[in-house]
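INFO  loader      accepted 1 record
INFO  loader      residues=704
INFO  predictor   begin
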Amino acid sequence: MQRLLYLLGIVSLVTLNACDITGGQLVSAGTSGAAKSWTADNGNGTYSNPLFYEEFEDPDVIRVGEDYYLAGTTMHMNPALIVLHSKDLVNWELASYCMDRLDLGSAFRLEGGNIYGRGIWAPCIRYHDGMFYVFSNVNNMGLQVFRSKSAYGPWERNQLPGRHDLSVLFDDDGKVYIISGNRSPYPIEELTPDLKSFVTGVRHQLDARMGEGHHLYKINGKYFDVSAIPGAHTDQVVARADSIDGPWQVERMIQGESLGAPTQNGVRSGRGGNRTFTITSSNPNAGGGLTLHQGGIVDTPSGQWWSIIMQDHGSIGRMVALVPITWENNFPIIGLPGNLRKAPNTWLKPDTGYTQDPKPLFMRSDNFDSPKMNPVWQWNHVPDDTKWSLTEKPGVLRLHSLASDDFWMARNSLTQRPMGPESITTVELDASGLKPGDTTGLALLNAPYAWIGLVKTAEGITLQMFDQTNNKTTNAPSNPTHVWLRVACNFDTEEAVFSWSTDGKEFTPLGEPFIMAYQLTTFQGVRPALFNYNTSGQTGGFADFDNYTVEEPRARGIEREIPMGKTIVLTSGADGSFLVSNEEKMILQSVSGSSPNAGTPNIRFKVIDCGTGRVALQANNGRFVSVATDGDSVAIKKAKVSDLTDAEKFQWVNLMRGDTMLMSLTNHRYLATRPNEPGPVTVSATGPQPDRKGGACFKWKAVE
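INFO  predictor   done
INFO  writer      dumping tokens
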């Protein structure tokens, strides 16, 4: 499969106040790691969502002094319950997992059952009196309470009766409240100070229509509960009360914000095993796209407020966004003044008082030279530690096969979260240690799943690709025992292509492209996995994996490019119309591609660098695009570069499929045309439509 090559780099950091007419071209990110792997930090004082271009579910965030901590769901994976640390809310690192082994019964070990779609759910992280706490329900196994003096562990654990999608508040009078549930009225119970039991005979409640995924806070003496409205395409609401007993007032916190992400593939039928699946195709118009919902809020020492909030995102799984909060009528509302309940895709980094270079969350490639497992890896269910090794043959991961009927129930499958928007995963496999019945290789763990690998029988080895969507097996023309296996995932098209090589250089596709999908069997996106299992009902041989690499061709691709200093033309993604400066009326307008004005120099605009990813657009006559201070009309104004105000500056916003938006700094809305109605341009759009047909999304092309 051909893959696009993108220019690595981002806009250089320049001063905030002045505009530089010479502009800057793209420069490399602050670290070599950030140039090769996705990080939200643009390196110019701004960030772009998603916060991680990989799955991270049910986020809860806290601040302790000048440090931030983020916890998220890990479902059935091991180690379990991830905790991250940051100093700036944009660049994060792993602090710890709360549990090395989520071993609460045989099904957790894939013995006589499984816990797909279950396990660790919706954690709540808190800090109180020098102790970190993480609370998380495990389906049918109770509420797990973890505690440690350090977010880096080690963690101690005790268990309470289960509570769904809970949140905990340490009140300033010494009481500890816990809210849970997904139906009104929501119970608010009290925990004993040691968090080892519930206080009997005491019960409060929140009697208002809220949702699930609670986040309970006390801010400036008032109680707040943030939760997501249940449903396929949801919003987030916030309730406020002067007392824990209410009465509670409810406000919509965010509404219909998709960040332009379209509704993507889903599974209509099939529940794992050997079932046949039906994949529903992408429909960017369905439900207005995939909306932001369910996340926590946090403040900075400077007084800013932010939310880290979740969004379904197709087969890659649920991802999170960092979005600003504006307080209105004493409610925390997501968005910026003039455009509330919407969220910017790109914005200024939080004012945390800390500055650092862009840094990816994990380094995902692994040559297995370390005697300890890279913490980016997680096991599918609890592993059998006697059947894998990094030291038995130093420099490789050795997986001894265990009995299983198929990949779905294969123990000791080692996984990572894939990276978007595209990633190419390759691994070297030596199968000379296999025994009859062994099947080993590289998979995409999901429902449905697919894999490419080697199958050992008494007659020899066969190289195969298997697609569970239709239970189809494709055989390769040759059957080597030493191969390089590859899967290239494109999360825009939701297709994955498996291929193989005997030299690690020239790769041959095998099988049809695999259609990836999100589903509620695992409640996760696809995951590359290394596996080895034996179908004979007993243990078999071993497979050696080496040189696992993850390439991200768009980590710093077109999604990050700003054509500073270049002269460009802008065309609408809705109807192909051109932006043009009308020198007679001194306004900015759109004209159809067939209009005579589309062939004049007036469609040209020079992009002036105003710092922190902000630009001014200079028309062919030397004047600047300018927004009216008392409305949403857009004029062409005479001005000096040194005198440009917010009316002439726009935040350049790149979406994830090469589309560009221009946010006015006067009202935080976006430059927009009226689709199929040529005429004056306004700054009235509140955000992008998933189908890009709303008039606020543009394509640019450099003309000189």
